[in-house]
Sequence to fold (323 residues):
Amino acid sequence: MISIKDLISGMPFPLYLAPMEGVTDRAFRLACKEQGADVLISEFVSSDALSREVEKSIRKMAFDERERPFGIQIFGHDELSLVKAAHLAEAAGPDFVDINWGCPVKKVVSKGAGSAILQDIPKMAVLTGAVVRELRIPVTVKTRLGWDSTSKPIVEVAERMQDVGVQAIAIHGRTRAQMYGGEADWSLIGEVKRNPRMSIPVIGNGDVNSAGKAILYRERYGVDAVMIGRAAIGNPWIFRQVRDLLAGREPYVPDYADRMGMVLRQLRQTMEEKGERRAVLEMRSQYAGYFKGLDHFKPVRMRLMAATSIAECEEILRLYQAV
Ligand SMILES: Cc1cc2nc3c(=O)[nH]c(=O)nc-3n(C[C@H](O)[C@H](O)[C@H](O)COP(=O)(O)O)c2cc1C
Fold:
């Protein structure tokens, strides 16, 4: 089993696609992989639901061999179900299991999972350590700077995670209280990386919305990898744009045919997995990203939002292409 450190150090500029519930399903992840994302992670999977073997949660762990290196992310608050879920995740065959200690959503936090754990670091260490001990594959963690502006213990958290055997830590440069507001603060991510006690890879995350920013932030904060989330929604080409810029090329700009082709492919792939109705519904949240900046696209988008079949979406998209 290859360690995360070896995995990352073999990549010239490691780029992660951030896990995003409701977005980073297999079809979307494959699109990003094709465009240059190195490491992919599933949407988060509830350890409570998984340990009860709820069908939907089991399905969320499915991945394609082309997605490797691939991680399955679990979240939870209770040792028994977290460990059981971690075993089930491991059995699905990923390269690593990631524990979500960063989700700020009330439904998750109110149970003590996600970023709520940042209020109880000893418990975070116990639960994480238990998962690490139980698994044969690497365990990584994704978290935030801290709970709120008065508590940003990420430097200590990162050390504790390393001490219990976590192989890499992804840090979103916000506190729980910030949710997704304000600006991500990477200075503390840089501090974690500069900590001489740290030896595991540190993955920086938050507000990387252009190829230039990915390169700048990696240099400025010294992180081992950069993780991109929202900026990839409707723009899986962002990974390719980073590669272009690094190679001294003009970053690739997809034309309309590219965008339409990507949307249709994603729709069809999602349909294979989840059926046409879900594919059409779920794609609605991505049109704004895919067709950003196009002239007179709003009425087209409105029609796409009301479409109920892939054939209808295709017809609408081709009509715009023709005018
Ligand atoms: C719609 C959405 C869903 C998300 N779901 C997850 C998730 O399942 N697991 C997780 O660790 N983070 C999740 N996040 C947080 C992202 O992984 C990432 O940390 C955050 O968006 C900041 O990165 P960005 O500025 O590049 O988007 C989600 C974010 C969004 C916008």
About this structure: The domain at 256-322 is CATH 1.10.1200 (Non-ribosomal Peptide Synthetase Peptidyl Carrier Protein; Chain A). The mean pLDDT is 97. The first strand starts at residue 15 and ends at 17. The radius of gyration is 20 Å.
